[in-house]
Amino acid sequence: MSENSTGSATAVIEDPSAEPMIKVEALRRSFGEGEAAVHALKGVSFEIPRGELVALRGRSGSGKTTLLNLVGGLDSADGGRIVIDGTDLSTLGEEGLLELRRDRIGFIFQSFGLLPILSAAENVGVPLRLRKADPKEREDRVGLLLALVGLADHANQRPGELSGGQQQRVAIARALANKPALLIADEPTGQLDAETGLAVMELLRAVVRSEGCTALVATHDHQLLGLADRVLELRDGEIVEED
């Protein structure tokens, strides 16, 4: 607080853009009980500034998916704190978490997660329909996103008529539908060949720049790590930052 010329107190409002997009403090998550318990995360702490593409690496079973689920509000921690875009997740109930995932976080999964009976354009438009966006707004946004991921000519094709790389591009476009501040991707290139996987990762990097969002991407592919602004490694339940 500060005082103005009349002596009354005024609040000093900090620039929210100066705050990190992701702030994780002493995060803990275990599965099971007693001696059989698996301690996936042991006091994990890190920050990710806005506008960065950060890769999360670690051996299979290291807890990468667990960490992504916690950051994305899909799971609850045993202890610690997660702040996403200025919001402490522990202060949100189920409805608040649902709104956060719908409006401010985009998810990209290894299995694509597309609805097989819908066209590429219809799949991309699903989040906008859930938000009850104006039909014209929805149509314009879907067209823009399909062009962004290089699939404007495939709008009417269903997932089964697209290659794996094309399906993942549709999934990326769908994740961007509601203009999320944060993209979370769990092994998005895991089902793709090396060349296609590299193209998808390059697309993610371009999307982060053009859409002005932040991305946290779990990957074990060493070739893809070089495209990230920063690499975090999960090792023995703790985060180690790499050069």
Q: How many individual domains?
A: 1
- Count of distinct strands: 12
Number of helices: 7
Helix content: 25-40%
Low-confidence stretches: 1-15
List the keywords.
243 residues; Rossmann fold; six-stranded mixed sheet; four-stranded antiparallel sheet; 7 helices; 12 strands; globular; disordered N terminus; nucleotide-binding; transport; ATP hydrolysis activity; P-loop_NTPase; ATP binding
Would you write up a description of this structure?
One of its GO terms (cellular component) is plasma membrane. It comes from Streptomyces termitum. GO terms for molecular function: ATP binding; ATP hydrolysis activity; transmembrane transporter activity. With 243 residues, the chain is α/β, with parallel strands linked by helices. The chain has a single domain, classed as Rossmann fold, CATH 3.40.50.300. Helices cover 32% and strands 26% of the residues. Strands 8-9-10-5-11-12 form a 6-stranded mixed β-sheet, sandwiched between helices. β1 and β2 form a beta hairpin. α3 crosses α4, α4 packs across α5 and α5 packs parallel to α6. The protein starts with a strand and ends with a strand.
